[in-house]
Structure formats: C-alpha cells, structure tokens
TrEMBL record:
The chain crosses the membrane at residues 12-33. It is a single-pass membrane protein. Belongs to the cytochrome P450 family. Pfam families: p450 (PF00067). One of its GO terms (cellular component) is membrane. It comes from Salix dunnii. It comes from the Eukaryota. This is Cytochrome P450. InterPro entries: Cyt_P450 (IPR001128), Cyt_P450_CS (IPR017972), Cyt_P450_E_grp-I (IPR002401), Cyt_P450_sf (IPR036396), Cytochrome_P450_Monooxygen (IPR050665). It is found in: Membrane. One of its GO terms (molecular function) is oxidoreductase activity, acting on paired donors, with incorporation or reduction of molecular oxygen. SUPFAM superfamilies: Cytochrome P450. Keywords: Heme, Iron, Membrane, Metal-binding, Monooxygenase, Oxidoreductase, Transmembrane, Transmembrane helix.
Length: 1129
C-alpha cells in the first residue's frame, strides 16, 4: 500500500510539475520567446524599440510617461481653465523629435487628456518614425513614415489582415465580423455587405436620413422656442440617438426606439472595453467587476439581436442589409472551407453588432466634432450655410443636392463682409463655393478621425520599404499623428483650415495616403459613402435652420478610447436663426410701423397670428351655421358678399354681424378684419411673414403708381410657393424680373394677341360642338359641369397659342399643375419649417414638382429637336440663353430653372385664372337672364352669324355712353329682343369686368419693400410685405356705391375710370409696373369663350348648383358650376 501511495504521489507530483513547467514554457514562449523572435528580426533591420517586460510588455513605461506628462501639464490645464485659450487641435502631440526614456516633455500649449498617450507612444523610443513596442503579449510595429504608410495602403494581399486580438480582446464588441476577420471569411463578408453601401444604394437611403434628422431639428426648434429664442443643447447625445435611428431605419428596417436598448448596451459595452490595455495576459478571463459587466452585456446584446432577427424572419420585409446578412449566413454555412467555430448565429450577431456600432457611433462623433468646429469658426459656419441655402433652395436635401456639395478643383477665395444679397446670404463667390461643406467635413475627420489607428497584421512575411515584417507582427499607424504632421500638411497642420481640401484629397497634402479617416487599402471602410451622405444631411439641415456658437460650459477634452470623442460632451448654444427670423426681425419691422400709428395684434414666436385667425374663423363659422342651415332649406338669392367687407371696429370679444348668406370663404376675411381694434391699414403675421394689410384707397393709389424696382415681390412666393412659381416672372425682382418681363410681355401685346384669336376660336368651337352633341343626345337640354370643361379648353388654348402643342399633348402637365395648386392651397404660408416636414401633403408636392419639371424639360427637348415657328416657348428659350450671358444675374437660377419656372408659371396663370373667370362669368349670366340676353344680343349683332375674329372682339368694347336698354317681349326677325344696338356694344366687356370685380381670379395684390419706401406719409421698412385684399377693395360700398355686393355690369358703362370713385379700386389684373403681362390675352380669350357659348346656347343654373366660392391660390367654385344648357333657336 505504501509503495502504491508513494507511486501515486510521485505521479501526481510529476503531473503537477509537468503542468507548471508547461505553463511557464507557454508563458515563456508567448510572452518572451515569440515577441523576442519578432522584435529581433526587426532590430537586425534597424528598427528600434524599448525592451518589454515579461508579462506587461511596455505598459509600465507608457503608464509612467503618461503620469510624467500629466503632472507637467497640470499647471497649463489650470491656467487654461482660468484664462481660456483658443481651442488647440494639437491633441495627438505630433512632435516627432528625438526623445529618450528620461527626456522631459515640452510644455503643452493647452491641456488635453488624450495628449499624454501619444506623447508616451513617441517618447518610448530614442529616435525614428518607425519603432516597435508591446502591450502585454502583443507586439506593435508603429510607423508614421509616409513611404511605408503608402506601401501598406497599396497592398491588396490577403496576407495583410487584421490582428487576432480584435476578435479576442475586443471580441464582445467586434467578434468574428467584417472588421476583425481575415481570409476567405472576410472576403465573403465583404462581398455581401459592401454592395449595400454602394452609391446607388446610398442614394435611396437619403430620404430616410432626412426624415430622421428633420424630427430632431423640430425638437430643437421647440426647445429654442420654449427657452425664449436660444437653447443650450448637449449635441453629442442627441446626434448619437439620431445616427442610431438612421442606421436602424436604413439598414435594419426598424427605428431607434425599437433598438434603443441595443444601442444603449452597445455604448456601455464600448465604454467598459475602453478601460485598460489590450494584450495583458489572461486579463479578459479575470472575473472582476468590469469583465463581469462585459460578459453580461455581451450575452444580453446577442440575445436582443437574435430576437430582432427572429421577428424579421416571421415578417415580410423588403431586402435591406439585415436581409442580406441573413442570406449571407445561409450561403456561409454551405462553404466547407470556412471555420467551423463560427456558427450561423454568431455570423449574424457579430456582423449586426459591428455595423450597429460602427454605423452610428463613429458617424455621430464626427458630426459632433464638425458642429463644434463650425461653432468655434463662425466664418466657416457662414460659408457652409451659404452653400446649403444656395444648393437646397429652401428644400429638404436629396441625393442630387448632396452630390452638388462636392470638392471642386478651384480654390475658394471668399471674403466675409456685412453686405447682404436679397436672400440674406453674404455676398459669396458662388462659382467657387460648392466645396464648402465637404471641405469642412474632410477637415473635421483630419483633425478628429473617428478611429485612432489603422491596424494590420502580417499573416505571412511581408516587405514594406525594404523592411521585412515577420509573420505575426502587428502593424499600427496612428492616424491623428500622420494627419497632423506639419511635414505632410504644412505649418498650419494643427489648425482648422478646410481650404486645404479645395483641390480635393489629392491636393490637400504632399501625399494622398496621409489622409485615412476611413482606413486604407483593401480594408477601407465599406460604409464611407453612407457616412459622408449622413454627415452632409445632418450638418446641412442644422445649418439651414440654426446658427450656433460654443457654450461657455464647453471644455475641449478629446477622450481617447475605441474612438476619439468629446470628453465632456459637445455643448453648443443654438442662437436660433429661428429667433432672428421669427422674433427679432418681425419685432423690428412691426415696431417701426407701430411708432407711426399702425396697429396690429402681437404675434406668437413661431406661428404669428395664425392661432387668432383660426380662432376667429371658428367663431364666425359657428355663428353662421344657423344661416347656412336656413339657406340650405330655403335658398336665398346668390350673395356675392363673400369677402365680408364690413370694415367696422371689432374687438376680440365682438360678435360677428349676421351673414346675409353662408359662404365658406367668408370667415377668412372676417378673421383678417377682426384681428385689430380699428383701421383700414394694419399689420399682422402668418408665421415668420409680416403683412402690412391695407384697404385704404389713398395708400392703394400711391402703391399702384410706384414704378420703383424697390417695390417687388416677397421672397416667400419663390420659397413657400416655389414648387408652383419658382423663380418666374411672377415671383422675382430686380434685374432678373426686368429681363423676364422684357422677353415675355411683348408676346402678349395686342398685335400678337390678334394673331392668336383664330386659335382660341378653333379650340372653343371644338368644345361647343361636343356640347351640341351632348344636348342632342339628352333630348334638347344637358346638365354640364362647365368649370372642368372650360379648364381643359383654356389649357388647350394656352398650349396652342404659346407652346406650339395642344392640351392632349400637355394634359398630364396641366393635371399635375392642378393637383399641385390644390396641395399648395392647404394651410398658411410662413409656418416655420412647414415646407420641409415630410408629411403626406409635402411629399406629394415634392413628387409632383419633380415630375412637372421633368415633363416640361422633355417638351423643351422635343422642341429643340424640331423646327417650330417663333412663339412664347421659343422666346423663353432664347431669353434663357441671353440670361446666361448676364454676369449680374443670380447664379442660383440655372438655364433649366429659368425655362421651367417661367413655363410652369405661364401654364398655371395662362389657363387656371382665365378658366375660373369664364366659369364665374357664365354662372352670373345664368343667374341673371336679363344680362345674358343683352350680352347675347351684342354678340349676334356684331358677329352676324360668323365666328368671332379680332376685329369683332374690338367692337365688344366699353363706350362712354350709358346703356339705356329695355327688355320686352317683342322680337325682331332674328328672334332677339328689340334692343337699342347703337348703345349696346359694351355689354360683354361690362359683364366680364363685373365678373372680375366680384370674383377676381387672385385674391391679393402682394408686394414687398426691398428698400424703405413711403406711402401716404407712412414709411414701410425694408423687408415688410404689403398686402391688398382685392375682393374687399372691389366690394367696398364707399368706393362702388350701395350696390357694391350686387351684380350690376352697368357700373362699367363709362369704362373702368367711371365705375367707382377711384380707378385704382379695380385691380383684377394687379396694378402698377407689375400688372399682369397677359391681360390682353386673357380678355380676348374670355370674349371668345363667352361669345361663342352665348351665340350657340341659352343656359340657367342647375338646382344642383350651390354657391360656394373656395379661397385658395385662386378663388374658384367650391362645388363646381353646373348649368342647364339648351341650344339657341
């Protein structure tokens, strides 16, 4: 027994001794022999480095030097906090001097907690830009030699891979993902993931990026308003959440809210893994508090991602990145050559986790640094904002706009000054400005790259710059040191100067390989296009909405972990652009008017007086409901008093006088008038837009007689109404408007209009024949909804007369223009940011605008390829060419835009307003049979049974002799009443003029003061919009007599001059220098349409007709115009 026991003890001792020897042999091999072998091969080639300790490598030296540098910089830190210095971007401390182990560190210009790590890195060796050191068992060949960096970047061999410690020491975060694997498995991952971030795919993701960013922007706007115009916002957390939402939506078919817990745990996991050094033997297995947190979070994150994957498998999703990863995992399982230790679940989880992390963390940090740099450099903030406003034109950015924010080959030479253009942007050289935002982003990533090292490992012996890198050696390139090396980037390498990228990355330094924020070579970041697009969307939207500066609470403290992030957060004070535009500027304008006795209600910060208007509308609508019900049960005569022109003194609690007849439009004008306590001239606002509203005829007269270019059109016409009017003759000012007027107006002079009459007659005759067929088919009387018919007719006329086509060819354009007009009629102008919100209505507007523009350009292209006579379209094309030669014209209006905007505006105005006036005219004639007979008698007498021509239309004119006509039952041989034809030639013109008095095609004359102007002794400050409500002026009993609300064409018997107490009270075509260029065309078209209908048909209102003028961009019949139509016998 004793012998057996002794034998057993010897065996146990031998096993224990063998185990201990094997353990020490392993320790010796892994932590001394192998590192010694690797470093000795480099040392024989002249690569130096400090001798490592057995277990910790050079970590003790790094710790000691860090402590030394930190101690020596404490005085500088204290001094900076007491007397803040300009922000120092030299945080990597790129002084590549000769240090030795005992060297003193040079004094720091400014304290940065990161600096001492890089000082320690450089101070480890005695000399040289390439050296070797170790952290634990991991050997690093660290180089900032640009020649070696260049050769490494050009290497495409799979033998240059990623170190194994990324999947081990960083395993809980990166695992076996595309960021940490090598060989065939990496090739497979790259093959399935990289195509999802190609530019064609990224373009489709831009709208998602915009949607997410717009939500954040709106929340900031609310905070700014709540804080009185300026808010202090810690942006890095906000942008982290935003970036997480974007990567979730774009790649994983969810949103940040759904994946919030995953992102939060990934962030905590990242922080936990940033503590300490990699390579310390066994450190990741020690069950200390930090490791236990890491293990727990890793398990939870993996479970959450697999849960998302499981939900995805049970639903029907479009193909996105997650779907591609799932499919790639299945194909991965079929590859026998792939490692068996990487399961399908691990393949999915590791890649999802890595993309979740890299796709939101690095981009959001770069965005935060970018905004910090712009806040600290107001000149560059102004330049970048000018570019964004210039390219986006007030619209949300899209893929095409982002492409225009590109690096150009021409250096930008821009001076910031106090002079402003009409758009409020500094006078910048826009021919060289389109690089600004990209340059700013590139410079941000140069100073603060999202990751700190390019890391590779030699999977086989490799040779770079004549040096053989042994298999197993890790290669480390400290990106910040290379990217701030004065030898490569010039003496201003540590300064923020985006202009260095004016010639692109290639021309930014002495070597393009010195710029590597996305890595380098074959392993360059697959998502770089996605990241750049996201950065441009985030920064451009913030710039377009806000101005910002650094908060006094901000302390510059880059923190070095897995990424370089602001140590104390990025706290910016957002001095809203919003505050200036929506409070300070309106307050300044209204206060100047108030000192002159012009009253008006106090506006809210963002919505102006819209809440009051809405409230009064509701009040009037409620009080008129009884009148509406009564009218529906016992129809009253049609009431033309739809503008409600009672200019009485109201106060906030006043009851509205009883309506004579219900009209859905009425309450808008009641609201307009009830806003103030008294006076025909007052100021109010809709959102940011200030209106000086007047019905004072003396002021109206002075405005109408003003010919100065300083009285122009408001900018909101080309912004809020931009999809419809753009930069057309109806919305521009100054030289560009003069140029447009010069080329377009002559095409509507009377000599040109005469030549178009036959076209008008041809189109109208076609419609008349179709009505005759319907009447015959319906037994002698047909009920026709005329407004749609006449809209199509008017569209056909404007197409034939001005654009050399017909309605059938342009039908889709007119239909979309009509839908666009309806969509843009909803809501108020001036509500801050309303046109950027991607709601259903705005998405429809953006889509229709894009489609209409494309269709018009297609027509223009076809026109250029054919041989057409010279008409309006040809004139616009020639005007666009001459426009391009004018250096003084704005460069933001391209030739295509010049053509499209003017064609679109004429398409709209040339058919929509005329068609609506014709519909109202026929409705009034149907409701007033006496005037229908008079007008018909005139037409039959003048035309003598022939189709009308230009000479006949000229005879249908206003005369100076009052018409004294009696209607009786005796008939002439022609069947017409015995009327006095010597005095009847004014009838049709008088009817049309009275129609446009009661129902003007547009509701407001709108102007803006481009400089201070004076009318009726009142100084109108620059920037104030002037608004004259046409229906209120044209139905003012003080100007038109007690029958102002009644249909009485006889008032125009002496012409417009004798129709009221002031000829300026009649303005259906506008007034002054900006009066409608197409008024002769419109009057001719109206006479042709109405005269041909009168000569062929008699008509009356259908019982189905309900009088309901609808107020939008134009005043149109809300329920259409239905007439009972018979042929004249």
């Amino acid at each position: 027994m004793e012998a057996d026991l002794t034998t057993m003890m010897k065996l146990i001792f031998s096993l224990v001794s063998g185990g201990i020897l094997a353990f020490f042999a392993y320790i010796y091999t892994v932590f001394f022999a192998k590192p010694r072998r690797l470093t000795s091969r480099l040392q024989t080639q002249g690569i130096k480095g400090p001798s490592p300790s057995l277990l910790l490598g050079n970590i003790p030296e790094i710790r000691r030097i860090q402590l030394q540098v930190q101690t020596e910089s404490s005085a500088a830190k204290t001094s900076q906090m007491e007397n803040p210095l300009p922000i120092d971007h030299n945080w990597p401390s790129t002084k590549l001097h000769v240090y030795n182990e005992k060297a003193n560190c040079t004094a720091l210009q400014g304290y940065c907690p990161c600096t001492n790590f890089f000082d320690a890195l450089i101070m480890l060796i005695g000399a040289g830009p390439t050296f070797v050191y170790s952290t634990g068992k991991i050997q690093h060949l660290c180089t900032v030699d640009i020649d070696m960096v260049k050769e490494i970047s050009l290497c495409t061999s799979l033998s240059l891979g990623k170190p194994s410690y990324l999947s081990k020491d960083r395993g809980p975060l990166l695992g076996q993902s595309i960021f940490s694997t090598n060989g065939l498995i990496w090739s497979h991952q790259r093959k399935i993931i990289a195509p999802e971030f190609y530019m064609d795919k990224v373009k489709c993701m831009v709208s998602l990026m915009v949607d997410s960013t717009t939500t954040m922007v709106r929340s900031w706007e609310s905070r700014i308003e709540g804080d009185g115009g300026m808010a202090e916002i810690n942006i890095d957390l906000e942008i982290r959440n935003l970036s997480a939402d974007i990567i979730s939506r774009a790649c994983f078919g969810s949103n940040y809210t759904k994946g919030e817990e995953i992102f939060l745990k990934l962030r905590n996991l990242q922080d936990a893994m940033s503590r300490g050094f990699i390579g310390i033997p066994g450190s990741r297995y020690i069950p200390n508090k930090n490791n236990r947190e890491i293990w727990k979070m890793e398990k939870e994150i993996n479970s959450m991602i697999l849960r998302v994957v499981k939900e995805r498998a049970a639903a029907n999703y479009e193909k996105d990145l997650l779907q591609v990863i799932l499919e790639g995992a299945k194909s991965y399982g079929d590859q026998e050559s792939f490692p068996s230790d990487v399961s399908l679940d691990r393949f999915i989880v590791d890649n999802c986790k890595a993309i979740y992390f890299a796709g939101h963390e690095t981009t959001s940090i770069t965005a935060s640094w970018c905004l910090m740099l712009l806040a600290a450099n107001q000149e560059w903030q102004d330049r970048a904002r000018a570019e964004v406003l210039e390219i986006c034109k007030g619209n949300l950015p899209d893929a095409d706009m982002l492409r225009n924010m590109k690096t150009v080959s021409v250096p930008c030479n821009i001076q910031r000054n106090s002079s402003k253009s009409q758009s409020g942007i500094s006078n910048l050289d826009f021919s060289t400005i389109y690089a600004q935002l990209t340059m700013v982003i590139q410079e941000t990533m140069r100073l603060y790259p999202p990751v700190v090292f390019v890391i590779r490992t030699a999977l086989q012996d490799l040779k770079f710059k004549g040096i053989t890198i042994p298999k197993g050696m890790n290669i480390q390139i400290p990106i910040p040191i290379v990217q701030q090396n004065p030898g490569l980037w010039g003496p201003d390498a540590h300064q923020f100067n985006p202009r260095r990228f004016a010639k692109g990355i290639i021309g930014s330094s002495t070597s393009p390989q010195a710029y590597m924020p996305f890595g380098m070579g074959a392993r360059i970041c697959a998502g770089q296009h996605f990241a750049m697009a996201e950065l441009k969307v985030i920064v451009s939207l913030i710039l377009s909405k806000f101005s910002f500066s650094l908060s006094p609470a901000y302390h510059h403290s880059p923190r070095f972990g897995l990424v370089v992030q602001p140590g104390n957060g990025g706290i910016l004070a957002f001095f809203a652009y919003i505050y200036t535009v929506f409070f300070a500027k309106p307050r300044r304008l209204t206060s100047r008017l108030q000192t002159q006795g012009i009253k008006g209600p106090s506006p809210s910060l963002l919505l102006g007086n819209i809440p009051e208007i809405r409230r009064i509308q509701l009040q009037v609508q409620t009080e008129s409901s009884a009148a509406k019900t009564s009218q529906m049960e016992n129809p009253l005569p049609i009431d033309h008093n739809w503008p409600s022109t009672k200019l009485h003194v109201y106060n906030e609690k006043a009851n509205c006088t009883a309506l004579q007849g219900y009209c859905p439009c009425t309450n808008f004008f009641d609201a307009l008038i009830m806003l103030i306590g008294a006076g025909p001239t007052f100021v109010y606002s809709t959102g940011k837009i200030q209106h000086l509203c007047t019905v004072d005829i003396d002021m109206v007269k002075e405005i109408s007689l003003c010919t100065s270019l300083s009285l122009g059109k408001p900018s909101y016409l080309s912004k809020d109404r931009g999809p419809l009017l753009g930069q057309s003759i109806f919305s521009t000012n100054g030289l560009i408007w003069s140029h447009q007027r010069k080329i377009i107006a002559p095409e509507f002079y009377m000599d040109k209009v005469k030549c178009m009459v036959s076209l008008m007659v041809d189109s109208t005759t076609t419609m008349v024949r179709s009505w005759e067929s319907r009447i015959e088919g319906d037994g002698g009387m047909a009920e026709i909804n005329i407004d749609l018919e006449i809209r199509n007719l008017s569209a056909d006329i404007i197409s034939r007369a001005c654009f050399g086509s017909n309605y059938t060819k342009g039908e889709e354009i007119f239909l979309k223009l009509r839908n666009l007009q309806d969509a843009m009629s909803r809501g108020f102008i001036g509500i801050p940011g309303s046109r950027y919100i991607p709601n259903k209505n705005n998405r429809e507007i953006w889509k229709m605008e894009k489609e209409i523009n494309s269709m018009i350009l297609r027509v223009v292209k076809e026109r250029a390829a054919a041989n057409y006579e010279k008409d309006l379209l040809q004139v616009i094309l020639e005007g666009a060419k001459s426009y391009g030669d004018q250096e003084s014209f704005p460069s933001d209006v391209s030739l295509d835009r010049f053509i499209v905007d003017n064609c679109k505006a004429i398409y709209f105005a040339g058919h929509e307003t005329t068609a609506i006036t014709a519909s109202w005219c026929l409705m009034l004639l149907a409701a007033n049979q006496e005037w229908q007979d008079r007008a018909r008698a005139e037409v039959l007498e003048i035309c003598k049974g022939n189709l009308p021509d230009a000479d006949m239309l000229r005879n249908m004119k206003t005369v100076s002799v009052p018409c004294n006509i009696q209607r009786n039952s005796s008939k002439s041989q022609s069947g017409i009443s015995n009327l006095d034809f010597s005095t009847i030639y004014a009838q049709l013109t008088m009817v049309i003029q009275e129609t446009m008095r009661l129902y003007p095609p547009v509701v407001f004359v709108i102007r803006t003061a481009l400089q201070d102007l004076k009318f009726k002794g009142i100084t109108i400050p620059k920037g104030m919009n002037i608004q004259i409500p046409i229906p209120i002026v044209q139905q003012n009993p003080g100007l038109w007599g007690p029958d102002a609300h009644q249909f009485n064409p006889r008032r125009f018997a002496k012409g417009i001059i004798g129709s009221s107490t002031s000829p300026q009270a009649y303005m259906p075509f506008g007034m002054g220098a900006r009066i409608c260029a197409g008024q002769h065309f419109a009057m001719a078209e109206l006479k042709v349409i109405v005269s041909l209908i009168l000569s062929k048909f008699s008509f009356s209102l259908s019982p189905a007709y309900h009088h309901s003028p609808r107020f939008g961009l134009v005043v149109q019949p809300g329920n259409g115009v239905s007439l009972h139509i018979r042929r004249v016998t």
